Each structure stands twice: as C-alpha cells, then as structure tokens.
Amino acid sequence: MKVRLEDAGDVVLKAIQRHFDELARRFQAMLAVQIAEATLHTYLKAVFPDPSPKTGEKRFKKALAQAQRDRQESARLFTEGKGNDLKGVRGTLWAAYNGVTEYVDFYRSTYGDTTWLEIV
Questions:
Q1: Rounded distance, CA 36 to CA 66, Å?
Q2: Which of 75, 80, 89, 119 sits most deeply, having the most CB atoms within 10 A of its CB?
Q3: Mean pLDDT on 65-93
Q4: How many angstroms separate the CA atoms of 110 and 90, rounded?
Q5: pTM beyond 0.90, yes or no
Q6: How many CB atoms lie within 10 A of CB 88?
Q7: Is the pLDDT assigned to residue 96 strictly greater than 60?
Q8: Same domain for 39 and 82
Q9: Domains: count for the chain
Q10: Residues 25 and 69 in one domain
C-alpha cells in the first residue's frame, strides 16, 4: 500500500508540474503579443461584457455603469498597473491580463453586492 501511495504521489506531482509548465508557456506567449488600443478595448469588452437590457431598466443601468467602470479601470492598469510599465511587458496581452487581474483582485469593490458575478 505504501509503495502504491508513493507511486500515486509521483504521478500527481508530475501532472501538476506539467500543468504549471504549460501555464508558464502560455504566459510567456502572452508577452509576445503586442496589442493596440482597439484590441485592448475589444479584449476588455469580452472580459467585462455589457449586460442584457432584459434585466429591467434600473438593474441594467447599474450593471452597464459597472461594466464601463471595470473596463476603464482595467485599461488604466494596462499602462499603470504593477509591473506593466516594464520593458517587454508594456503594451502586451500579458499587461492587459495583468491589469484585469490586478483590478479584480485589489480594486473592484463587491462589498454588499452579492450579485456581481451573476450573468445578466
């Protein structure tokens, strides 16, 4: 039983290592993709899409304003975010991804709003 558990542990660790190697490869590939401002806005609109107007006027306006703030702040962090001004990072798909991640992880407030992840 001990040998089988050790073998299973090795298999799991190798799978985890392969996963992280692939993730690192993808992140490196993102550094190679320079994006223009129009592409950035397309990317941000895909990440933070406009809500459906079918949700009711008041809820729609609130969700639309939030999506617009999300895109505006993520665009700001694309250039001003931590590390996004570094040579080789500036203006890349990685900077766009990093800007969104920094915004969502550190700046986007969800206090008292339990519905922000709902699909509208």
A1: 24
A2: 75
A3: 94
A4: 29
A5: no
A6: 10
A7: yes
A8: yes
A9: 2
A10: no
Residue 98's contacts (CB-CB under 8 Å, 6 or more residues apart) are: 77, 81, 82, 83, 84, 89
Amino acid type, 67: A
Which tens digits make up the pLDDT trace of 23-67? 999 999 999 999 999 999 999 999 999 988 887 788 889 999 999
Residue 3 tokens read as 């040998």
Nearest alpha carbon to residue 78 among 60, 90, 64: 90
Find the domain containing 21 and state its range. Answer: 1-32
pLDDT band, very low/low/confident/very high, at 99 (cuts 50, 70, 90): very high
The type of residue at 96 is A
Dump the DSSP string for 29-79. Answer: HHHT-B--HHHHHHHHHHHSPPPPGGG-HHHHHHHHHHHHHHHHHHHHHHH
List the structure tokens of 118: 């709902």
Same domain, yes or no, for 25 and 58? Answer: no
Handedness of CA 62, 67, 72, 76 (dihedral sign): positive
Identify whether residues 68 and 93 lie together within a single domain: yes
**Which one-letter amino acid corresponds to residue 95?**
A
* Same domain? 11 vs 70: no
Q: Does 106 lie in the same domain as 90?
A: yes
